[in-house]
């Protein structure tokens, strides 16, 4: 059967305005060229080694595996990368591609600010001009990230139109791109959006499983029985699964945000729960959480990185073909897993990553001891201190925030 370019089963494609057609075809050409050029991957990996701290290690969770009494659990430590998550892999890859295309400026949109932060770091390092779009609401709420982006030399623009949220920032970024195509590249942060982004971002993130497949065989002397990763847009999970896709004996599990429950607006589970339907939005075809009229529903998650209405078209396809199984972890299960990892192993996980841990821990309990579970720890939790301290209802923390606010009001 002929494969339609940019499609994964019925999902994917590039539904883009006519003004951007030539930019996308230029991008696609440049991507195909670097993909078949082994020296590009070498240049990319060398940058990751010397700047971002790769290879990231694998850590065996001896105490937790023992406590749970089942499968042996190992973590792939993307939290140890420069900037604290797997996002640096993708932005450095696209940054190098931009240099190869001879462009001088990058733009991006960001919600919680993590992708904008990573993009600003990359732009500073590679000498690119950088402009980050944020909905005004996020711009105000995510002051810590905005502060760093500005210190790194990026221009951060609060978007004041529409609902002042992520999707309005996305529209503004696309408007900018269509006006500055000759000089500018749009750095998409996850394995979503129009072709070639899902495929390209997956390719850059595949460095995770390229390393882990060798590392786990060195350490555990076998292939993993299962690989777990959390799923927002899908980039860390696809990168974690990529080199195992052909090994049918390795089970792959994507974990979405189960939030507070299964009702509409209470979660962001597009594939684990049956609520999402196929549609076209934001330039590509996938499963969206939408109503019958195609209007996007509200989503919720304790972790901003998993709170998204769409999902990678590649994952939608792998779900349909049953190569990847999807589960949802609730906020409560996630916080429990986060606590266990801190207390028993001294590792502070990002809230996103703790979703994958929650399901892996539950399933490890019910599995034989000779099984090897590999869980991608997509990021570290420092960034989540405000959310975690609030969720754990730490009274001293509340006092600390209140006192800080008082200090400032006295000064001004
Ligand atoms: C952004 C983010 C995610 C979600 O994005 P994916 O594209 O699904 O990987 C997960 N974990 C962390 C730590 C993140 O920063």
Description:
This protein is α/β, with parallel strands linked by helices and 412 residues long. It is 45% helix and 17% strand. The protein is built from 16 helices and 14 strands. It has helices spanning 21-35, 38-52, 62-68, 87-101, 114-126, 136-141, 143-151, 166-179, 197-205, 207-220, 235-241, 313-320, 331-345, 351-365, 385-391, 395-411, and strands spanning 7-8, 11-12, 58-60, 72-77, 105-109, 129-135, 155-159, 184-186, 226-230, 251-259, 277-281, 284-288, 324-330, 372-377. Strands 3-4-14-9-10-13 form a six-stranded mixed sheet, sandwiched between helices. A four-stranded parallel sheet has the order 7-6-5-8, sandwiched between helices. A two-stranded antiparallel sheet has the order 1-2. α4 (87-101) crosses α5 (114-126), α10 crosses α11 (235-241) and α13 (331-345) packs across α14 (351-365). The mean pLDDT is 95. It binds pyridoxal-5'-phosphate. Pyridoxal-5'-phosphate binds at residues 85, 87, 114, 190, 230-237, 305-306, 350, 352-353, 378-379.
| Shape, per Cα inertia axes | globular
Mean pLDDT: 95
Strand content: 15-25%
Rg measurement, Å: 21 Å
Question: How far is it from the N-terminal to the C-terminal residue, by CA?
Answer: 69 Å
> Helix- and strand-based class?
alpha/beta
The ligands bound in this entry are: pyridoxal-5'-phosphate
Low-confidence stretches: none
Instruction: State the share of residues found in helices, binned by percent.
Output: 40-55%
Secondary-structure element string: EEHHEHEHEHEHHEHEHHEHEEEHEHHEHH
Specify the number of helices: 16
Lateral arrangement of strands in the main beta sheet: 3-4-14-9-10-13
What summary fits the major beta sheet?
A: 6 strands, mixed
The total count of strands amounts to 14
């Amino acid at each position: 059967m002929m494969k339609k370019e940019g499609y994964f089963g019925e999902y994917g494609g590039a539904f883009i305005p006519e003004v951007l057609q030539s930019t996308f075809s230029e991008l696609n050409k440049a991507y195909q060229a670097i993909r078949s050029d082994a020296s590009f991957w070498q240049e990319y990996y060398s940058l990751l080694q010397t700047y971002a701290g790769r290879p990231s290690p694998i850590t065996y969770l001896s105490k937790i595996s023992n406590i749970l009494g089942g499968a042996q659990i190992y973590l792939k430590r993307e939290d140890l990368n420069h900037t604290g998550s797997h996002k640096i892999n993708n932005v450095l890859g696209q940054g190098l591609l931009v240099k190869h295309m001879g462009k001088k400026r990058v733009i991006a949109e960001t919600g919680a600010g993590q992708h904008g932060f990573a993009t600003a770091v990359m732009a500073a390092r590679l000498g690119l001009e950088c402009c980050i779009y944020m909905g005004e609401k996020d711009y105000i709420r995510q002051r810590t990230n905005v502060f760093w982006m500005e210190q790194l030399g990026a221009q951060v623009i609060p978007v004041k139109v529409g609902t002042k949220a992520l999707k309005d920032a996305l529209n503004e970024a696309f408007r900018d791109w269509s006006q500055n195509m000759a000089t500018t590249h749009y750095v998409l942060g996850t394995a979503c959006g129009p072709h070639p982004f899902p495929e390209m971002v997956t390719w850059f993130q595949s460095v995770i499983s390229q390393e882990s497949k060798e590392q786990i065989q060195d350490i555990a002397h076998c292939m993993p029985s299962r690989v777990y990763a959390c799923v927002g847009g899908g980039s860390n999970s696809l990168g974690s699964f990529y080199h195992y896709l052909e090994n049918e004996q390795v089970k792959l599990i994507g974990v979405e945000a189960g939030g507070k429950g299964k009702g509409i607006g209470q979660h962001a589970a597009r594939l684990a729960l049956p609520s999402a339907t196929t549609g076209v939005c934001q330039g590509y075809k996938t499963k969206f959480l939408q109503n019958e009229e195609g209007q996007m529903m509200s989503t919720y998650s304790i972790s901003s990185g998993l709170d998204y209405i769409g999902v990678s078209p590649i994952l939608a396809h792998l779900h349909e073909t049953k190569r990847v199984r999807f589960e949802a972890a609730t906020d409560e299960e996630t916080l429990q897993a986060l606590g266990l990892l801190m207390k028993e192993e001294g590792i502070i996980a990002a809230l996103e990553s703790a979703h994958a841990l929650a399901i892996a821990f539950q399933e490890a309990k019910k599995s034989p001891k000779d099984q090897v579970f590999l869980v991608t720890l997509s990021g570290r939790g420092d960034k989540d201190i405000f959310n975690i301290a609030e969720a754990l209802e730490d009274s001293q923390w509340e006092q600390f925030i209140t006192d800080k606010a008082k200090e400032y009001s006295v000064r001004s």
